Amino acid sequence: MRLHKYKNDPEKLLSQGRQIISESRDHRFIYRVSMVLLMLAGLSPKELSNYSGDSERTLQTWIKRVDEKGWDSLVGVKQKGRPGKLTKEQIRELGALSRARREETGARAWDGPALSVYIREKYGIDYSVRACQLLLRRMGLQSADPETEAGVESQRGSQEGTSNRIE
Fold it and tell me: Domain-by-domain residue ranges, the chain?
């Protein structure tokens, strides 16, 4: 017994849903599509909610969305998370200043600790050293630390000469 009156052919929706599951890598999306497919196959939202742990209302909403707006309506919206302490304009300003200093001196303008101090003095914002390192990397202004990189290379060289074979 189907509780939902469909605007689209349920068999066509079932076929489209199976194709989506075989092609998609988004696990939440696949889960939602699977739940809708089970309802299209005849399970009631109430019965399915007992097994899935999703509320009956949520399941009804998913099937209604698919019927009215298509399968893409089940794709989750990416959560943005906590807003950054620096504005986009401040980040652009730091990037431009760092690039200008790099052109003048030929070296990195900042490392994590120096940028942390600069941000505190210039903008009055406390930014941890690690957050500054990530910010520099995100702006494309810092690769791995040269000393660390050299240490890794020397370790690789010493490991290449050794063998794990028992003779």
Answer: 10-74, 88-145
